[in-house]
Amino acid sequence: MFYDPTEHRIRSFVTRAGRLSEAQGRAIETLGPRFCIPYQKAELDVAAAFGRTAPTVFEIGFGMGETSAKISALMPEKNFIGVEVHTPGVGSLLKLTDAMGLQNQRIIQHDAFEVLTHMIAPNSLAGVHVFFPDPWHKARHNKRRLIQSPLVALLASRIAPGGYLHCATDWEDYAVQMLEVLGAEPALENTAAGYAPRPDYRPVTKFENRGLKLGHGVWDLVFTKK
């Protein structure tokens, strides 16, 4: 994460101008009112947003949403809130949500740090997913990485006791940093001796599968709230 003097806050992303397809734009227009939750500086009534009370999982940066949709379909008994800043990704997940008939997926298009700070109640989340965040692989850009102590402390405060934080990356040096930062958070406990086996609920993406065939590594970290 890095300081943005124009916003007077820590930012963990750079907004990129992605091409919004006609189908994505149509999904945002027609499905957005149903599945998107506007950002507000007020605590979210999760039960009202989903029309039910259920364990809620929060995902930061869902990209184009393929993994999010698959996990939501796999666990219909849970609520899923996905946060993404890039509009094409929002449109893509909305399309998938509609095509797959998902009733348990909601989207907030905003900075995750602010959403967590203002909209998510302490000790309320059953889990948090952070899959393949931008590695900012150049050393001078490492400070922009998402998984750093301030965010991890905030996440830990929002996860209910017994809930979990699941991170995954395909950059080894980022995995090392994640393990160090998560291990230093006193409210969290590692479920493994180091890196965890990939949980069954996290599907292997096409990109990840290609990398694995080429011998590239993927590291999962699963910590629980004490």
TrEMBL record:
Pfam families: Methyltransf_4. Keywords: Methyltransferase, S-adenosyl-L-methionine, Transferase, tRNA processing. Substrate binds at residues 138, 170, 205-208. The keyword tRNA processing applies. GO terms for molecular function: tRNA (guanine(46)-N7)-methyltransferase activity. Pathway: tRNA modification; N(7)-methylguanine-tRNA biosynthesis. One of its GO terms (cellular component) is tRNA methyltransferase complex. InterPro entries: SAM-dependent_MTases_sf, tRNA_(Gua-N-7)_MeTrfase_Trmb, tRNA_methyltr_TrmB_bact. Residues 140-145 are annotated as: Interaction with RNA. It catalyses: guanosine(46) in tRNA + S-adenosyl-L-methionine = N(7)-methylguanosine(46) in tRNA + S-adenosyl-L-homocysteine. Catalyzes the formation of N(7)-methylguanine at position 46 (m7G46) in tRNA. Belongs to the class I-like SAM-binding methyltransferase superfamily. TrmB family. PANTHER family: 3-DEOXY-D-MANNO-OCTULOSONIC-ACID TRANSFERASE/TRNA GUANINE-N 7 - -METHYLTRANSFERASE, PENTACOTRIPEPTIDE-REPEAT REGION OF PRORP DOMAIN-CONTAINING PROTEIN. This is tRNA (guanine-N(7)-)-methyltransferase.
